[in-house]
Structure formats: C-alpha cells, structure tokens
Amino acid sequence: MALERTFSIIKPDAVRRNLIGKIVTKFEEAGLTVIALKKIQMTRAQAEGFYAVHKERPFFGELVEQMIASPVVLQVLEGEGAILKNREVMGATNPANAVEGTIRKEFALSIGENSVHGSDAPETAAEEIKYFFSDDELVG
Ligand code: DAT
Ligand code: MG
Prior knowledge:
By secondary structure, the protein is α+β, with helices and mostly antiparallel strands. About 40% of the residues lie in helices and about 20% in strands. The chain starts with a strand and ends in an 8-residue tail after the last helix.
C-alpha cells in the first residue's frame, strides 16, 4: 500500500450538529492524519463546480443547496491507502446501507444529508485537494 492523500468534507448537516470532533476522531482512529483543515462557507459557484460530475443527476440542485446551507469543514487526510480507508470509515452513500461503526451509519440523516464527502479515486483526490487547498496549506 502507498502513502496517499485524500480529500474530505464534513458536510453542513454534521457541522450544524457539532459533530466535527467526533468525525475527525473516526479518521484519526483509523490511522489517517489531518494534514490540512479549514472551515468555510462554500459559495454556490464552488459547490456547483465541485459537484459538476453530478450535474445531470436529478438530485443535483438539492445537493448544491445542502452543501451551501451552512459552513463545512474541509480536510486533507494522509495515510497508507488513505483513499479507500476514508471511504471505509465514511460508510455507504445511503446510511440505510452503511455498516455499523461508520460515520454515515452513526450520524447521517438521509442519503443527501449524509454528513461527509470523500474522494473516490487517486485522480479525484488530487483534483479535489487542489480545488480547495494551495500547496502551502498542506502540512504533512
Ligand atoms: P458519495 O458521496 O458516497 O461518493 P456519490 O458520489 O454517488 O456518493 O453522490 C454524491 C452525493 O450525492 C451523495 O453523497 C449524496 C447525493 N446523492 C447520491 N445519490 C443520491 C440519491 N439517489 N438521492 C439523493 N441524493 C443522492
Ligand atoms: Mg462521490
């Protein structure tokens, strides 16, 4: 396994419920290291650009509205096999299908308000990190 970096968003539904610490703890306990972290209010343009891959899907409008409803926490996580590890800690997109102990099983409200985003592959991880962070913000 290689040392990887991946991108994570703690979504508005979780930030609003003061779950930042509990979610970061899940990542850290899985062996992921936080090498960048910031809280922002995402703009509509940022959210539409970030989710451009989903723009033809029926839930695109709702997805953008949920992402800009209130602040989010952005992170870059580093570790061995970090991309897959992050996805495992997150759990399935639909919380109804998420395994016990995962973030989405414990905290997600619905398939849309599912508490976290995580990159799904090395290419998207690199793109998503660059979309929100400059190189000098990554402190490995
Ligand atoms: P993931 O966030 O697990 O990578 P995805 O990339 O397929 O899932 O979709 C991005 C987000 O879009 C997902 O976190 C929640 C929303 N979404 C996906 N499928 C949906 C659906 N059928 N109805 C409503 N929202 C959906
Ligand atoms: Mg995805």
